[in-house]
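Form 7-S
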Amino acid sequence: MEVKERVYDVDAFWRFVCQPENADRYFELIDGEIIEMAPPGEEHGYLAGAIFHYFLLFDPQRKLGIPTVEIGYYSLEDRSTVLGPNVAFRRTGTASAPLNKRWVPVMPDIAVEVKSPTNTLPELRRKAAIYLQHGTQLVWIIMPEQRSAEVHRLGADGAIEREFVGADGSLSGESVLPGFSLEIARLFI
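Output:
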């Protein structure tokens, strides 16, 4: 849903979301256009929380990086897009201390999007492409209705590769989070 017709950048978008009338609303910015998102449902929140939990369990001292939930990320090269992955992981080398008070000025190394009833797979695939084009190395799209996931990454030729991981498969941290593995079945109750 388009909120305004003007083109926004990161700073104007920040001022927009901080207005009192927007306090309980959730937005993203894609190519300068403000997109209002529906609040997530219980299943969505549970899945995002579970993935965040597994990231924390794998690296409890956060020596490898910082996991986050529902935080805005943008690329310094593209100040017209701010995405809020449901869960993200940013390696220590790209993490700053102290933590950012506003959005993070670098895309996460791993971005996780949980498909909600209000999302379409093409919308989420578009977001995966945006993440990858701006430095994210892995994007996981969790699809609750199939108890599965799609893993997106850039191939050696720069093309986006998409891999389906079924209910009996696992998500891997690959080179971003070496040794991390999460069985899809462990996400669902």
